[in-house]
Specification:
Blueprint: H1 4-21, H2 24-32, H3 34-37, E1 38-45, H4 57-63, E2 67-73, E3 78-84, H5 98-115, E4 119-125, E5 129-136, H6 139-151, H7 161-170, E6 176-182, H8 188-201, E7 203-210, E8 222-226, E9 233-237, H9 244-262, E10 266-271, H10 277-291
Parallel strand pairs: 3-4, 3-6, 6-7, 7-10
Antiparallel strand pairs: 1-2, 4-5, 8-9
Length: about 290
């Protein structure tokens, strides 16, 4: 059951999303997924007013005149938003918890897809599939997704990215774009192969929600910490040369980035200490440039 505060947040989110869709985000979103959302139609001569981003320079050089790639929008594009709802979402060194940023981002992506008449599906996971909403369209469907994002209470605490990827790979979906939202703090050796498979099957985008303390922990001496997922307790030494925590965090961050680069899968970093809309717009814009 949604609280009045959550309903007000969803209403504000819808208004906010409509506003940003009136900016360049709408065009960038549509153009960013040519592989699934836009289908190549033909090459034709450049005409005054055409978008220069769609110039085919190779064909232009061969034919000695400027040629434009023309695309038509497919009617059946599917967006799947997968969200890690494990207990690590209760952490943040900033105002909003990680789980709140994840829910807001997932809801925004879902609502953008809804406004563009795409099918939307949602997966909530911990160490197992907590909730799966099959892709569909319509105002009732998007309302169900938004309410689920904010009202769901996880039944489990730990994370298994492997389990979520295995579920996604098993789905019989065509032309799907997957936004996989998580802190990605898990043993990457367990899910590396499935990530590669998912990257081949879908237009897969890893969204990494990162806190500054997870890359550079402050020097505050000896610190007792509790793992929110397992309940394990440990004492870590954050002092100067003894700070093995930062070396571990840095190594994990680099290994994870390397894994995505190795399989040529997009990785979108969303810092918890700033609004996510700026990196989101930059991400869509960069994909548009790569498509040209």
């Amino acid at each position: 059951m949604l609280t009045d505060q959550t309903r007000a947040k969803i209403k504000k989110l819808k208004i906010y999303t409509k506003r940003i869709m009136q900016s360049n985000l709408c065009g960038d979103y549509l153009s960013a997924f040519k592989g699934s959302g836009l289908e190549f139609d033909q090459l034709r001569d450049y005409q005054h007013g055409d978008d220069v981003r769609f110039i085919d320079w190779n064909s232009s050089a061969k034919m000695d005149k400027i040629m434009i790639k023309r695309y038509i929008q497919e009617r059946d594009r599917t967006i799947i938003v997968a969200v890690d709802v494990s207990a690590s979402g209760n952490y943040s060194s900033h105002q909003e918890l990680r789980k709140e940023v994840a829910a807001n981002l997932a809801a925004t992506l879902s609502f953008i897809a809804h406004l563009n008449k795409d099918k939307i599906g949602a997966l909530l996971f911990t160490d197992r599939v907590e909730q799966w909403i099959a892709p569909s369209r319509g105002i009732a469907h998007i309302s169900n997704i938004l309410e689920t994002m904010y009202a769901h209470t996880p039944r489990h605490a730990t994370t298994s990215i492997e389990t979520a990827l295995r579920f996604l790979v098993s789905l019989k979906q065509r032309n799907a774009v997957v936004f996989f939202i998580s802190d990605w703090i898990d043993n990457h050796e367990r899910y590396a192969h499935l990530l590669k498979v998912a990257g081949c099957k879908y237009d897969f985008i890893g969204v990494r929600l990162g806190d500054a303390c997870e890359q550079q922990f402050p020097d505050i001496g000896l610190l007792d910490v509790v793992d929110p997922e397992t309940g394990g307790v440990a004492t870590i030494d954050t002092r100067g040369n003894h700070n093995q925590v930062n070396r571990f965090l840095s190594a994990h961050h680099q290994e994870h980035t390397h894994l995505f680069n190795k399989h040529r899968i997009d990785l979108l970093d969303i810092p918890l200490d700033q609004p996510f809309i700026t990196p989101l717009i930059k991400f869509f814009s960069s994909r548009v440039k790569r498509q040209i």
